[in-house]
Write a structure and sequence with these properties.
The structure holds two protein chains of two kinds. Chain A is an all-alpha fold. Chain A contains four helices and no strands. Chain B is α/β, with parallel strands linked by helices. In chain B, strand 8 and strand 9 form a beta hairpin. Classes of the chains: A mainly alpha, B alpha/beta. At the A-B interface, helix 1, helix 2 and helix 4 of A face helix 1, helix 8, strand 24 and helix 9 of B.
Chain lengths: 119, 444
């Protein structure tokens, strides 16, 4: 359990994801750069993009909330105290954030700049 | 001023932008996936033989392959299939299938390593050679002994591996299919109730927590079936304790009390009558017979015969009787043959017969072996680190880690090692196997 340096964590991620390792890694990096692009180009996308991002984040959070425990062959009855609840909550929050961040910049960039032109 | 027309800043994502940024993302991804520069490989023409291609042998071979430049590395093992032994408990619990704990050994065999598909039948360290079961004599400059250990079911009168899964007999140690058969036997017991017997042998054994885990799992099976009140569970401890680490021993006893699991101290299984469902135990007061409806058999364990019958085994002391490898407990170097190192279950050291121990032993043994080759002082040290994710029911475990001094050494400061937690179960069920496989590739 000890010695989780970045190289080790990467190796473990490769073992967990198998053939999906590269697609997931590229997807994550694409999300990062798209977010950067959206911010760089001052794209907020308006209400539509924000709603799309929020919906995606909420969907991802719900998937983790109700799917993580069954995925580990357990259930809510197995949560035992603050650490378990905090970790589950953290996973749900991270999924929500990731879902939102994955969808919002794409929606913002595709929708164009909805800021009002200067007078 | 009113802005007329459109500028590029008013446009959405163009195709050129998409291609550029996707390419940048892929470049970042590629950069992230490149491992950090390794320590410079030791230039040597030495021939290093690794006896065994289990967890210890493959981890060692992988590290030696990347840690040397020019060395000839030979690994000797007849097995084509690699077994993830830490998963046997989950197979025995019916959570995993047997196919989830097997994978081809070839998947982890490092490039450039010669694989001799036979077992070592004889060690001749005086001549710096081993002899395989197929009769090949393999000379070496340096040797890593990683043979694992031998399960001695025959040491229990009336017991054999063929009985596992029949007449209420279970044993998760024998292999994936035996663990699966044990799960079926346990499920039958959970429906019928009766007397369930559990325990462990005297002497050294791998994963000393597994007999306790299976007791807890049996209790859980019965409760889920609504039949706990129709069953009596007895844990037959091999001495006055149920676990070698005192604080864990106390905690497990608390949990046994809560779950109405009784403990019979100093009861060691020495015979079994499958047809009559009767087991015989050696105790300080003489032999005791118990009838059972379900029994989880854990066989005595020894070093493999090739090690036991060689000059490499301990010749005196507590590890001599079962022929464990005579290594220094800190450097893992053989105490009489300095060009020999040991990793894993075969070592005659006070602790460390778990996969997690191999994760810590392999880099120590390999680093020290390379130091011997380079004529440098041995600096890497193994502190006895052992980890036991002690399953207390399906969905919860205690993440117990300790060292030679029986000190708890948790890896995660926010996880109480003596508390039954879902997160500890999740680590065991989801994170342990990929970490283990990364270890086999020398990357963890």
């Amino acid at each position: 359990m000890k010695d989780f340096n970045p190289e080790t964590l990467l190796a473990i991620a490769q073992e967990i994801l198998g053939v999906w390792f590269w697609p997931v890694l590229i997807l994550v990096c694409a999300v990062i750069v798209l977010n950067g692009l959206a911010l760089f180009r001052h794209r907020t996308g308006g209400r539509t993009a924000r709603v799309a991002g929020a919906a995606a984040g909420l969907a991802a959070a719900l998937v983790v909330l109700f799917g993580l425990l069954p995925w580990t062959d357990s259930g809510f009855r197995d949560l035992n105290g603050g650490v378990d609840v905090a970790i589950l909550a953290g996973a749900v929050a991270a999924a929500g954030l990731a879902g939102g961040l994955a969808v919002w910049p794409v929606a913002a960039l595709l929708s164009g700049d909805r800021r009002r032109p200067r007078p | 001023m009113v802005r007329t027309g459109t500028s590029s800043r008013d446009e959405g994502l163009t195709r050129r932008d998409a291609l550029m940024w996707t390419g940048l993302g892929a470049a970042i991804a590629a950069g992230l996936s490149v491992p950090a520069p390794a320590r410079a490989a030791l230039r040597t023409g030495a021939h290093i033989v690794v006896a065994g291609a289990g967890a210890a042998g493959l981890a060692a071979a992988s590290r030696l392959a990347t840690g040397t430049d020019g060395a000839r590395i030979t690994i000797i093992d007849a097995r084509e299939v690699h077994r993830f032994q830490p998963g046997f408990t989950l197979v025995g619990a019916g959570v995993w299938g047997p196919d989830q704990v097997v994978t081809p050994n070839a998947r982890f065999m490092p490039d450039g390593v010669r694989w001799v598909r036979s077992d070592v039948a004889e060690f001749d360290p005086d001549a710096n050679a081993v002899v395989t079961a197929s009769g090949e004599r393999v000379a070496y400059d340096y040797l890593v002994v990683a043979t694992g250990l031998s399960l001695e079911y025959g040491a229990i009168e009336g017991m054999s591996e063929a009985l596992i899964g029949r007449d209420g007999i279970a044993s998760i140690y024998a292999g994936p299919e035996a663990a699966a058969a044990s799960s079926r036997a346990l499920a039958e017991f959970a429906q019928a109730g009766g007397v369930g017997l559990f325990g462990r042998p005297t002497g050294e054994m791998k994963c000393a927590g597994a007999p306790l885990k299976y007791t807890f799992i049996a209790d859980d099976f019965l409760r889920r079936a609504g039949n706990r009140g129709r069953a009596e569970l007895i844990y037959n401890a091999h001495n006055q304790t149920v676990f070698g680490v005192p604080v864990v021993d106390a905690r497990v006893r608390e949990l046994f009390d809560e779950r109405d699991v009784s403990v019979a101290p100093s009861h060691v299984l020495n015979a079994i009558e499958p047809g009559a469902r009767r087991a015989r135990f050696s105790t300080p007061e003489g032999e005791v017979e118990r009838t059972y409806d379900f029994i989880h058999v854990v066989p005595p364990m020894k070093a493999p015969a090739a090690v036991r019958q060689s000059p490499l085994a301990w010749s005196d002391g507590p590890f001599a009787a079962d022929g464990w490898l005579d290594v220094d407990r800190t450097t893992l170097q053989h105490r009489r043959f300095p060009n020999v190192f040991g990793i894993g279950d075969v070592n005659g050291v006070p602790k460390g017969k778990t996969a997690a121990s191999v994760k810590w032993q392999a880099p120590v043994a390999v680093d020290n072996l390379l130091s011997v080759i380079a004529d440098r002082p041995l600096e890497a040290a193994y502190n006895g680190y052992t980890s036991c994710p002690l399953i207390t029911r399906i969905g919860r475990a205690m993440l117990i880690e300790f060292d030679y001094e029986n000190r708890l050494v948790p890896s995660f400061p926010f996880i109480d090692p003596l508390k039954e937690l879902w997160v500890s179960w999740a680590i065991d069920e989801k994170a342990l196997k990929p970490t283990y496989y990364a270890m086999l590739r020398g990357l963890a």
